[in-house]
Design goal:
Distance between the termini: 87 Å
Structural class: mainly beta
Low-confidence stretches: 1-27, 303-309
Number of strands: 40
Number of helices: 2
Helix content: under 10%
Length: 676
């Protein structure tokens, strides 16, 4: 103020551009989307569409800057619009459980504004988070309508077979359970016509889980390998201590059928025990697993008792092992020590035989991401050593070979379409140095290579094959020796001294409408062995050649000729076995998806150059299938098949062996599958 007078001020005015920005920011800050939910239920279905309400006053510039994320994956490109609603339908049904949905705005200044965030609960029903049932059934009725000179045929001319695979899963809260139940039907049986196969029922709640039925217990080890039997097991897994403990009771032998129940209760055919596994190190660059297993039990032996009936034998076994990966998991070190006490004669007068075994393994990868040219080089090399005692045997590893000392070196290399595998190995027996037994040393050197060139395409994206098509090649060779390095004191005039050499090659060539392949194998056996003072006469040389073609004559007809030639020359005996096989197959779709057929013819001649054998077999088989009713979830499918086999056997040496026969069948197949 000056001179005591009030001076009238001019009104303050913001530029029009700034007012527009403020209005735009105010409008943007005031709106929020709304997720539309159903009133009938509080959850969503796996394939249910997601509908978001966007206020109509939101400017177009804002709409164009919005992004929708589902489980941190941008799905904006799949979003449609229906008036004031944004619609998203999952391409694949969402998995059961919780999912995150987020709508964000990408501002012009580079910032991201979250407009909405929702947690979607996907369930099957109010009662269960997951509830799935899959059923696949089929039944076949087969009637033999004609035959000639066929032996060992079933007495019934009409037979029925069928199967049903039932799989189900239930889950809610912190528990889940599953069922796998295979059923089989066979009318041509003396026992039960409907039986159950390898079923499994599993249940889990938090850290506790249980299984009933056929299932493996632990990774393969010296005392348990390939042990997939029927029984029960329970596991407690602690995430806090990174440890799991499993107890089990399993049948010792393979069983099937309803009468065997859950596989428990037979003391002469039962294996019980426990497994403890701990993971003290579990990082991205390193990891280690420590495991211990103990088991005891019996199972029917492959031998026969005094009375001619199978007897049970068994004992107990334990092992401890460590398996670790280091240096960004490029090096792996594994070691195991095991001990067994096995009663070989069961309830006989001898006690258990105790023995032990151990194994060591090391693998190493020089690089993880080594690139040479346009391709990555993957190289893995390693060494393994294993020693198994003479009397080492576990009832849960019946297929293991005892009394062995083995060492090997191996390497695998792949680069682009080139692969090379090589190994050197040596194995000896008679680990206990028993003078009454010989010691056999076997050595193996092998290398195999494969090469598949990278396919080439022209500017239009069409496959360029050339006159060779798209080729692939493989070449392999093996050298194996077996030599008795220590003879048995009871039979010093018997020893083994053999050498086997094998070379093989295969080439495949694929074109757009046809393909062909050729393979060749050469084998040479040198044998200087002696049996009870007499030299053996097993030296031989073999050659095998095969040639196969496949022609797509039309989209509905495929012709497949094949040819093979084999011969083995027995050098000590002075004769050669020869075999010639050729044939052709035709697959036809006379009426696509309605009437199909397959026809096969083959001629197989085999003979010996010393005229002790010379025979020829001509065989023809054919089938026609008419799909009367196509299967869908609401009705079963029905098809009818007429099939037949013809065989003509001619013996040029003994004409009385000639035989000609055939058989014809009419089959009806009814199949249905559905999911709920």
């Amino acid at each position: 103020m000056k001179s005591g007078r009030l001076v009238a001020r001019k009104p303050f005015r913001l530029p029009l551009a700034i007012l527009s920005i403020l209005f735009y920011t105010s409008a943007n800050a005031s709106w929020s989307p709304e997720l539309i939910t159903t009133k009938e239920r509080s959850y969503r279905l796996p394939s249910e569409e997601i509908r978001l309400y966007i206020p109509p006053e939101v400017p177009l510039e804002v709409l164009q800057s919005l992004s929708l994320e589902l489980d941190d994956i941008d799905v904006t490109a799949l979003v449609g619009r229906d008036g004031d609603f944004a619609l998203f339908v999952p391409v694949q049904p969402l998995s059961y459980g919780q999912h995150r949905l987020r709508l964000v705005e990408n501002a012009t200044d580079g910032s991201i504004l979250e407009r909405g965030f929702w947690t979607l609960e996907v369930r099957k029903s109010e009662s269960f988070r997951e509830a799935d049932l899959n059923i696949a059934t089929s039944i076949e009725l087969s009637k033999r309508i004609g035959e000639k000179n066929m032996t060992a045929l079933p007495s019934r001319r009409t037979q029925g077979t069928g199967s049903a695979a039932i799989q189900g899963r239930l889950a809610d809260g912190d528990w889940q359970s599953g069922l796998n139940l295979p059923l089989f039907y066979n009318s041509n049986t003396d026992g039960r016509e409907v039986e159950v196969g390898e079923f499994l029922l599993d249940w889990q709640r938090k850290s506790l889980s249980a299984k009933v039925g056929h299932h493996p217990i632990a990774p393969d080890s010296l005392v348990m390998s390939g042990f997939n039997r029927r029984g029960v097991s329970a596991t407690y897994a602690s995430s806090l201590y990174a440890t799991s403990v499993t107890g089990f009771s399993m049948r010792g032998s393979q069983i099937s059928g309803f009468e065997q129940g859950m596989g428990v209760g037979d003391s002469t055919d039962q294996v019980q025990g426990g497994v403890v596994t701990a993971y003290p190190i579990n990082r991205a660059d390193a990891g280690m697993a420590l495991s211990a297993i103990y088991l005891a039990g019996e199972a029917p032996d492959t031998g026969l008792g005094v009375a001619g009936d199978p007897f049970s034998s068994g004992g107990d076994a334990w092992s401890i092992g460590a398996d670790g990966s280091w240096l960004d998991r490029r090096i792996r070190l594994r070691g195991e020590y095991a001990s067994t006490a096995y009663d070989f004669d069961g309830s006989g007068g001898y006690g258990s035989e105790k023995d032990s075994g151990y194994s060591l393994l090391m693998t190493y990868k020089p690089w993880l991401q080594k690139q040479i040219g346009d391709n990555y080089l993957d190289w893995n090399m390693g060494a393994e050593y294993k020693q198994i005692g003479t009397y080492f045997k576990s009832v849960a590893n019946p297929g293991a070979t005892a009394d062995r000392k083995m060492g090997r070196l191996f390497s695998d290399i792949s680069w682009g379409g080139l692969g090379v595998q090589a190994q050197l190995a040596q194995e000896t027996d008679n680990v206990a140095d028993l003078v009454t037994l010989p010691r056999l040393r076997s050595r193996l050197a092998g290398v195999s290579t494969s090469y598949t060139p990278t396919p080439e395409y022209n500017a239009a994206g069409e496959w360029v094959t050339g006159w060779l098509g798209h080729p692939s090649y493989s070449l392999y060779g093996n050298l194996q020796t077996a030599e008795t390095v220590s003879r048995a004191s009871l039979d010093p005039n018997t020893f083994v001294d053999t050498q086997t050499r094998i070379l093989g090659a295969t080439a495949n060539f694929s074109h757009e409408e046809w393909s062909w392949s050729i393979n060749y194998t050469w084998t040479r056996l040198y044998d200087d062995s002696v049996q009870a003072g007499t030299a053996t006469t097993n030296e031989s040389r073999s050659r095998a050649t095969g040639l196969d073609f496949m022609f797509n004559l039309t989209p509905n007809y495929t012709l497949s000729p094949h040819f093979s030639w084999d011969e083995t020359r027995y050098l000590d005996l002075g004769y050669t076995d020869k075999a010639l096989l050729w044939g052709v197959s035709l697959d036809a779709r006379f009426i696509p998806d309605r009437l199909t057929g397959r026809f096969d013819y083959s001629m197989n001649r085999s003979w010996v150059t010393n005229d002790t054998s010379d025979n020829t077999t001509d065989q023809f088989s054919a089938n026609l299938t008419w799909i009367a009713v196509r299967q869908n979830p609401s009705r079963p499918g029905i098809s009818f098949t007429l099939s037949g086999d013809y065989r003509d056997y001619n013996d040029s040496i003994v004409s009385g062996n000639d035989n000609e026969g055939y058989q014809l069948f009419l089959r009806t197949l009814i199949g249905w599958s559905g999911s709920y």
